[in-house]
Specification:
CATH topology of the largest domain: TIM Barrel
Strand order of the largest sheet: 6-7-9-10-11-12-13-14
Order of helices and strands: EHEHEHEHEHHHEEEHHEHEHEHEHHEHEH
Distance between the termini: 61 Å
CATH class of the largest domain: Alpha Beta
Number of strands: 14
Largest sheet: 8 strands, mixed, barrel
CATH architecture of the largest domain: Alpha-Beta Barrel
Structural class: alpha/beta
Number of domains: 2
Radius of gyration: 24 Å
Number of helices: 16
CATH superfamily of the largest domain: EAL domain
Length: 406
């Protein structure tokens, strides 16, 4: 074991902490050296019996060899999940890629933050790239480490609905072949007057638990339609997609409400799409199909979101009148590195086109992924590589700057 410290790691510098767990002592030393050269304060252990003696929830990165004697990597991942570890994890192994793939899926299922996975022997540049990715998320004054986060209350939420504080932030969707801006996805943001912007991971669970999901959905939907009209008047004709919840999809008044919003702004139905997840349809199926069919009769586009992550993907495509498949980011983001993810993306595109549906890949974060999607015949791309979600009033300037037409 190299550089074993007694007690949890206590960093006396401003450098992020890193812990290597590998039963090959020389490998631990090697990775520690790479980490130190790239701005980390590194510790390595070669025996998981000593794990708790050096572990701390404030460690920034843990590099974990899955095959360890007595206590393997799966058990360590389970411990980290139960302790709600907040840092990043890099998984390494000398086994084949399927073991690394399964380990990454397990860690993700536990809700852990995964930077990536590396097969042994590990190259300097590969581990460096992952460490640099992890260091970008590290700041010594991270508010999540400094104290308790203040969350809004139910009363705040109800008041927010009354004051129309919920806004659709727009993430652009572009044609993969031409680069042309085709539309946006409306993602809800709560502009809280004192607590600042509240993201969907706070807003959506609160709306669902308080039975206010319909009110939230309709507020975002109506505001989105208003912005479609504003953009159209400015010479930019776009389609906007809005997510529909499980409770809203069984609201029999939904088709008429959507139609009324569009008519009020004199917009044809093609300017709006509704996104429905597979899980959403698992409830009152007959009512959902009733509403989805009536929406399609009104020429409203329907997109099946997070495709491939539910329990009955193909039967949902067979039953419901979808016009578009959104390929989940969990597959798209890994498609250039994992043959399993690439195969799922490729087969989804083939299936969609055979069913006369378009495909939208979400979670596109780099040029390699964009090139692969183009090669595989995907139609539309969405993700940070193109643009992050933005306030709707910024979209016109973003498009002008992107296209060079000011």
């Amino acid at each position: 074991m190299c550089e074993l410290r007694t007690g949890p790691i206590l960093n006396q510098t401003n450098r992020p902490d890193l812990l290597v767990i590998d039963d090959e002592t020389e490998m631990g030393k090697y990775i520690s050296l790479v980490a130190e050269e790239n701005g980390f304060s590194a510790t390595a252990i070669d025996d998981t019996d000593n794990f708790e003696s050096v572990y701390s929830r404030d460690i920034s990165v843990i590099i974990l060899d899955m095959f360890m004697p007595r206590r393997d990597g799966v058990e360590i991942l389970r411990f980290l999940a139960e302790d709600r570890f907040r840092g990043h994890i890099i998984i390494i192994s000398g086994f084949d890629s399927s073991v690394l793939h399964s380990a990454m899926e397990l860690a993700a299922a536990h809700g852990l933050k995964i930077l990536g996975a590396l097969s042994k022997p590990i190259l300097y540049n590969d581990i460096q790239a992952l460490l640099l990715k992890g260091s970008q998320d590290y700041t010594s004054d991270d508010p999540t480490l400094a104290g308790e986060v203040i969350l809004p209350t139910r009363e705040d939420f109800i008041m927010g609905l009354e004051r129309l504080e919920f806004e659709p932030y727009m993430q652009p969707q572009i044609d993969i072949n031409t680069g042309r801006l085709l539309g946006v996805e409306a993602l809800v943001r709560w502009i809280h007057p004192t607590l600042g912007i509240q993201t969907p991971d706070i807003t959506i669970p609160m709306a669902e638990s308080e039975g206010l999901m319909d009110e939230l959905t309709y507020q975002v939907l109506e505001k989105t339609v208003n912005w479609i009209r504003i953009w159209k008047d400015a010479g930019l004709s776009l389609r906007a997609s809005v997510n529909i919840s499980a409770s809203t999809i069984i609201d029999l008044s939904l088709p008429e409400l959507v139609d009324s919003y569009l008519r009020a702004k004199q917009l044809p139905p093609g300017h709006l799409a509704l996104e429905v997840t597979e899980q959403t349809l698992m409830g009152q199926l007959s009512t959902s199909l009733d509403i989805l069919t009536r929406l399609r009769l009104k020429n409203i586009e329907l997109s099946i979101d997070d495709f491939g992550t539910g329990h009955s993907s193909l039967i949902q495509l067979y039953r419901a009148p979808f016009s578009e498949i959104k390929i989940d980011r969990s597959f798209v983001s890994k498609a250039t590195e994992q043959k399993e993810a690439r195969a799922i993306v490729e087969m989804t595109i083939v299936l969609a086109h055979k069913l006369n549906m378009k495909t939208v890949a979400e979670g596109v974060e780099d040029s390699m992924t964009m090139d692969l999607l183009k090669e595989l015949g995907c139609d539309v791309a969405q993700g940070f590589y193109i643009a992050r979600p933005m306030p709707p009033e910024e979209l016109l300037d973003w498009e002008k700057a992107r296209s060079g037409t000011r």
